[in-house]
């Protein structure tokens, strides 16, 4: 074990991490493949010039590519860069947000997705207008647009941060170059380019994540040694405390994971758009099962990397000695430590992080273009298929430009994972709650659904804003006992004073419970419960609108259709569909 400690100390003290020519070649090759797929589907394998072709591939997509694409979108750069860091600093409790996928897959397959296929819905927010009213649809699409705009710069900035960490290049120059490539293939290739680049990028991600975990464990002496060190350091302890103010516990990880993944995979247009691009419900169910298996495997390896990372630095913390400036930079530092001596491997991992970012970014921008056009532009112009495609491509271009400048703001965040869950927590609970109200509670009508959605979003926004800068969560302690006495020039004098001491933090003084002290990991779950409860109660208090007295049974989930009684009504048509039919007749 002493040899391992000396090797760690030597790495911390003397390494200068750089990209070699082979790494640049690997990285450039990955970007070239992504751009090449866009060129192929944009110029050589073009389908009809229609919105269905651009957004859903003509509903002729295959099961396995869609499943892989869904996995790739969930394994974003945020996941690769921040989840191992979360495990490193706070232990394994976040892993319960991964395990909850075992329950989410059946919910998607038998409660949510059948409703979209039974009603031939391609834009998931159409369902809210069919089931409730246009105001509920507008509220949720508005939040979708705001949420995507808040998240887009984060998706692409994290890999740029990793690249800057190992090359020394300016992070904003890297951000600009990679954003430009993503804009290019998304704009000209549509959903087919998005899905098939996801397939290629997923292969890179799986290879990289598994390799990093394997090589890290091997460097430490095997899996048993990793578990021993992690266990002694408390990283394998499960926190069963039901305390709303504790940063991460089994309960809030599982609860927020259920609501967030259900909302994102089954009720977020970027994913729903790909699921309904499959020709039948049977294809969709198989794709979701394959997605669930792939998700559990790859996310488990990703979490394992964080445990290995702790075992590697448990007695000489790079953060404590100033070799890494922030927690979100720990992963690229660890990769260079473990794989930096292997030709091309740093380039493969950075390609992995960028692949994850490009996958999420391209799917988000593509779906965002469709939502903005059909919900905000089409009602005010004379629609043609060609004009729609041109407008959506222009919007994709503008969204990419926004991502480039948004990175300047993201750079100021101290914890990106906390920021992501805080932003998502405002709306994910409302989204999941209002859709499940419509599918599972026949009594709920449009006025109740709208009021419940608005109440949830407003309350969670108030909590998030009120807690801004208030809640600082101390990481679990890591020792610096075996750090060398001489560090490289980047170590500050103040850091040197902390050598040979254990990193400890004092708990913040308590002055009674405040709603603003609630952990951000509860936000999504609280918003979800608030929507369900208030929507159900308000359905008894408020009277429904005249056209909401009767309910179309197709809009209910098959999971409850045989357990409830309701009065049937003709299928309600969206106003734009009714107008088109009248014009044709």
Automatic annotation (TrEMBL):
Keywords: Cell membrane, Ion transport, Membrane, Sodium, Sodium transport, Transmembrane, Transmembrane helix, Transport
UniProt keyword Transmembrane present: yes
Localization per record: Cell membrane
Keyword check for Transport: yes
Ranges annotated as spanning the membrane: 24-43, 64-83, 95-117, 141-163, 169-188, 195-217, 248-267, 288-311, 348-369, 390-410, 416-441, 448-469, 522-542
Coiled coil: none
Membrane topology of this protein: Multi-pass membrane protein
Family the entry assigns: Belongs to the sodium:solute symporter (SSF) (TC 2.A.21) family.
Name of the protein this chain belongs to: Sodium-coupled monocarboxylate transporter 2
């Amino acid at each position: 074990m002493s040899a391992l400690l000396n090797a760690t100390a030597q790495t911390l003290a003397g390494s200068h991490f750089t990209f070699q020519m082979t790494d640049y070649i690997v990285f450039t090759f990955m970007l070239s493949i992504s751009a090449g797929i866009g060129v192929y589907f944009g110029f050589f394998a073009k389908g009809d010039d229609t919105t269905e072709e651009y957004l859903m591939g003509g509903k002729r997509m295959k099961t396995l590519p869609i499943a892989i694409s869904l996995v790739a979108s969930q394994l974003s750069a945020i996941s690769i860069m921040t989840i191992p860091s979360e495990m490193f600093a706070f232990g394994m409790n976040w892993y319960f947000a991964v395990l909850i996928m075992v329950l989410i897959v059946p919910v998607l397959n038998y409660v949510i997705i059948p409703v979209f296929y039974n009603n031939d819905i391609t834009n998931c927010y159409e369902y809210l207008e069919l089931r409730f009213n246009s105001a509920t649809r507008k509220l949720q699409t508005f939040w979708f647009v705001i949420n995507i705009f808040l998240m887009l710069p984060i998706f692409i900035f994290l890999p740029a941060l990793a690249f800057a960490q190992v090359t020394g290049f300016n992070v904003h120059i890297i951000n600009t170059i990679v954003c430009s490539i993503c804009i290019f293939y998304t704009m000209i290739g549509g959903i087919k380019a998005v899905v098939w680049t996801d397939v290629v990028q997923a292969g890179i991600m799986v290879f990289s994540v598994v390799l990093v975990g394997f090589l890290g464990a091997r460097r430490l002496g095997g899996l048993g040694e990793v578990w021993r060190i992690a266990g002694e350091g408390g990283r394998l302890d499960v926190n069963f405390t039901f305390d709303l103010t504790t940063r991460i516990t089994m309960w809030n990880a599982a609860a927020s994971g259920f609501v967030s993944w259900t909302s994102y995979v089954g009720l977020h247009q970027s994913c729903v758009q790909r699921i309904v691009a499959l020709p039948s419900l049977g294809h969709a169910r198989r794709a979701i099962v394959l997605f669930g298996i792939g998700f559990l495997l790859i996310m488990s390896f990703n979490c394992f990397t964080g445990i290995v990372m702790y075992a590697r630095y448990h007695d000489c913390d790079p953060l404590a000695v100033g070799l890494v400036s922030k927690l979100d930079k720990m992963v690229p530092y660890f990769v260079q430590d473990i794989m930096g001596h292997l030709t091309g491997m740093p380039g493969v991992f950075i390609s992995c992080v960028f692949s994850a970012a490009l996958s999420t970014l391209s799917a988000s921008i593509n779906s965002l273009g469709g939502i903005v056009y059909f919900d905000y532009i089409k009602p005010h112009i004379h629609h043609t298929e060609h004009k729609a495609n041109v407008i959506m491509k222009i919007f994709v271009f503008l969204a990419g430009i926004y991502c480039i400048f948004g990175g300047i703001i993201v750079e100021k965040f101290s914890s990106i994972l906390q920021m992501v869950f805080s932003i998502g927590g405002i709306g994910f609970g409302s989204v999941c709650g209002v859709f499940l109200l419509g599918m599972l509670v026949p009594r709920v009508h449009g006025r109740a659904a709208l009021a419940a959605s608005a109440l949830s979003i407003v309350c969670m926004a108030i909590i998030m804003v009120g807690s801004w800068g208030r809640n600082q969560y101390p990481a679990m302690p890591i020792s610096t006992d075996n750090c060398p006495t001489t560090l490289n020039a980047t170590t500050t004098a103040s850091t040197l004073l902390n050598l040979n001491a254990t990193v400890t933090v004092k708990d913040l003084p308590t002055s009674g419970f405040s709603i603003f002290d609630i952990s951000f990991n509860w936000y999504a779950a609280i918003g979800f419960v608030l929507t369900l409860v208030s929507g159900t109660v308000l359905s008894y208090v408020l009277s429904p609108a005249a056209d909401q007295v009767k309910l179309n049974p197709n809009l209910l989930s098959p999971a409850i259709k045989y357990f409830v009684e309701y009065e049937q009504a003709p299928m309600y048509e969206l106003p734009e569909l009714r107008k088109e039919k009248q014009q044709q007749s």
